[in-house]
Amino acid sequence: MGRLRTLVGDIAYDLYGHRLTSALPHDQLPAHVGVILDGNRRWAAELGSSSAYGHRAGGEKITEFLGWCEDLGVEVVTLWLLSTDNLSRDPAELDALLEIIEETVTSLAESNRWQIHPVGALELLPPRTTAVLNQAKESTATVSGLLVNVAVGYGGRQEVVDAVRSLLQEQSAAGVTLDELAKTIDIEHIAAHLYTKGQPDPDLVIRTSGEQRLSGFLLWQSAHSEFYFCEAYWPNFRRIDFLRAVRSYAARNRRFGI
C-alpha cells in the first residue's frame, strides 16, 4: 500500500510539473538565473547530521538543477557556492566545504555538458582550490552548453573593488591620468571589469531557505533582477519549486527602474 501511495504521488508530481511547464510563456523566460544555495547546514542539522553532509547533499542537487535550467532554455546560471565571509569559518568546516566544492566542480566539468566559469576573488582561496577551478574552466572552454558561473570566494563588494582596481590599472598602463579618468568613467567602464564581464545580467535571482536578502550576491549585476525567495532548504529544492520561481518571474512586469 505504501509503495502504491508513492507511485501515485510520483505520477501526480510529474503531472503537476508538466502542467506548470506547459503554462509558462516561453517568450518570457529568464536567460540568466542566479541562485543563492542556502540552507545546507540547517537541513543537515534537522536530520541530526554534520554540516559536511548537508553541503555534500547540496552539491549533488546542482547537477539536477542545471538539467532543469537546460530544459527551459536558460543560457547562463550563476551558483553562489562560497562567499568571502565564509572564508572566516572554522578551519575544519571550511576545509571540508572546500573539498566538497572541488569535487562538485570537478564532476560538473567532467560531465562535459556545461562551460564552467569561476567567479570570485580566487587569490583568497587555497592554491589547491584555485587550481581545481581554473582546470574546470580550461577543460570546458569549448563546450557549447549552458554557461555555469561558480561563485567561490565571492562577495559583491569585493567584486566592485576588484573591478575598479582593474580599471585603474588598465588606464594607468595606457597613460591615462586620474583626472582624465574621473571625467570619462561611466557604468560600462566598470561593468567591463566585473567577474561576469560580457555576460547578460541575471534576470531572476533565487534564494532558498526562507532568508529574504541578497547578502551582496551579484550586487552590481542584479540592479534590475527579479527576486524569488523560496522556503525550501537547497537540498530539498524541487523542480516544482524552480518552475514556480520561473512562473512568478514570467508574470511580473519588468520596468527596469523604480
Automatic annotation (TrEMBL):
HAMAP family: ISPT (MF_01139). It comes from freshwater metagenome. CDD domains: Cis_IPPS (cd00475). One of its GO terms (biological process) is polyprenol biosynthetic process. GO terms for cellular component: plasma membrane. The lineage of its organism: unclassified sequences, metagenomes, ecological metagenomes. One of its GO terms (molecular function) is ditrans,polycis-polyprenyl diphosphate synthase [(2E,6E)-farnesyl diphosphate specific] activity. InterPro entries: UPP_synth-like (IPR001441), UPP_synth-like_CS (IPR018520), UPP_synth-like_sf (IPR036424). Its cofactor is Mg(2+). This is Unannotated protein. Keywords: Magnesium, Metal-binding, Transferase. Pfam families: Prenyltransf (PF01255).
